[in-house]
Amino acid sequence: MNIEAISPAPLLQAVSDETRLRLLRVLHREELNVQELVRVLELRQPTVSRHLAVLREAGWVRQRREGTWSWYRATGAGEFPGDRELRRAILGAADAMDAAAADDARLAEAVASREARGQEFFAGVADHWDRIRAQYEHPDLHAGVLAGLVPRGLRVADVGTGTGALLPLLATAADEVIAFDASAAMLRRARRLCRDAQLHNVRCERADVTALPLADGELDAVTCSMVLHHVARPAVAIAELARVVRPGGQAVILEFTRHNLTWMREELAHQWLGFDRDQLAGWLAAAGLVPRRWLVRRRTQTDPDLAPAASGREGFTWPDVMLVVAERPAGPAPG
User: What is the pTM of this model?
Assistant: First the structure.
């Protein structure tokens, strides 16, 4: 706005006082509350509040309310009601004031004190912070973080989805998700989860992991979590995952590492007692998939109330869990 479009008199009158110039100067550097301004300018609170009101009414500063607190900042160039050159000249004149250096030193102390309070707070709650954070940070927010790192427009499948544990996460990250499982009972639970969670971009279909009703290279990515140990021929299942992923696409597999908990065969219908890395790597290579990341996480002892009866004890330690992210390279798949 040109200076001719608005009378400069109210603007100039508002900054004709030395205290108001000092206020404007520090608020151009940092947004502060009244208590901080009292310390920086070494003035009484009624004095600071009175001068702030004059600056605010003239348009030199903006007020932001948070509950019973008010924060102030200098009006930016784009929202200033007068000419930008006038604003620049006044701020330049304020910088030349004798009190500027001392104000800057106390301003730095005020900001440092604010940061120190934050550091002191987190030092005191660090041991309890996870419990505090869990009260307000919903798992969907974590899914949203992941979704922000994923390209848009992805079409993915969760093969062996079971009751659909991964579907809320996948539905957040991908535009379209297909959930496959050979068990009708499991799919009923997965469909209920999708309905309750309003996962409108997920569809559930019954299919075997070794014979997916998809064309070659139809998907951008596929997940297969805790499925292969239930499959008679894991190598065939991995080849099928590779077939439906496009060149440049990825297959993410989550599995138990090799273990000796033989009761899992009867109690949990496991056909394989986990896998070792070399074994899984060989099947991936045969399918034309190149591992890009391996990750192993150690499991803790299970809750005694959840221990399967065949474990023969009140509690036991689950096998380690292995994650592999494999990519189908560009170019023809192996024959």
Answer: 0.66
Whether residue 277 contacts residue 294, with contact meaning beta carbons closer than 8 Å, is answered with: yes
What residues pair up with 323 in beta bridges, in sequence order?
254, 295
User: Taking the CB of residue 241, how many other CB atoms lie within 10 A of it?
Assistant: 30
pLDDT tier, 133 (very low <50, low <70, confident <90, very high otherwise): confident
Average pLDDT over residues 111-121: 87
Task: Label residue 207 left, alpha or beta by phi (over 0 means left) and psi (-120 to 50 means alpha).
Answer: beta
Instruction: Compute the Cα dihedral for 227, 251, 329, 274 and give only its sign.
Output: negative
Cα(248)–Cα(185) distance, rounded to whole angstroms?
Answer: 34
Q: What topology does CATH give the domain 3-131?
A: Arc Repressor Mutant, subunit A (1.10.10)
| Beta-sheet strands, E only, within 257-298 | 290-297
What residue ranges do the domains of the chain occupy? 3-131, 139-327
The SS3 call for residue 238 is helix
What CA–CA distances, in Å, run from 7 to 4, 10, 78, 125?
A: 7, 7, 18, 54
Bridge partners (DSSP) listed for residue 177: 156, 202
SS (H, E, C) 114-181: HHHHHHHHHHHHHHHHHHHHHCCCCHHHHHHHHHHCCCCCCEEEEECCCCCCCHHHHHHHCCEEEEEE
Strand, coil or helix: what is 270?
coil
pLDDT digits (tens, 9 = 90+) for 32-82: 999 999 999 999 999 999 999 999 999 999 999 988 889 999 999 888 988
Residues 204-215: what's their mean pLDDT? 96
Topology given in CATH for the domain delimited by 139-327: Rossmann fold (3.40.50)
